[in-house]
Amino acid sequence: MKLRKQLSTQGSSAFLLTGSIIAVCIAFSPYLFYLYEIFPSGPVWENSFFVYESKYYKDVLTAAWTFFGKITPLFLLLIWFFTCKHWWYHVILVPVVMYAYQLASAVYEDFYGEGVIDVNQLIYLAPFFIIILSIVYLIRIKIFDRIYGIDLTEIERENISPFSPFSDKEYSEIKEFRDGQIPEAEVQEEYYVKL
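Predicted structure:
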């Protein structure tokens, strides 16, 4: 009993610590965005480690504002993706990939001074979006199969029409009954069995 209580306390404290770290990261996300203000205004940033020249934006402050404008939502979306408990959490990868692509293109443009990579962004990202949405739809089908107990082989075996409240098998039984092909004794026997 004591061991179980101790394990439960350790598990809940680790859960509480992880939740607290995530909450602090989300709370400080505006500060992450406003980190761009520490960068100098001008085309070149020199420090003791390296020299950075903004070729596309022509201003280090503008480049930093652009980069942190992509990094902050990317950071928040990644937190959401890794902490989401819903079945559709894979869809969060769509905006994650979009922001990652935009960040990579912004860095490439500023590093090489060319602004051609962000022109047809949706064309490059469409195959990834289609793959992610297909995966999410398959997961949805599996979940609904588990919840409602739908067996697709049973539907095929019963030959159920999607636009009819009855299966083809039930229609054939109704037709046989109306045509009088079932002997009267069998009908009465089935009636008494159902009672």
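Summary: The chain has eight helices and two strands.
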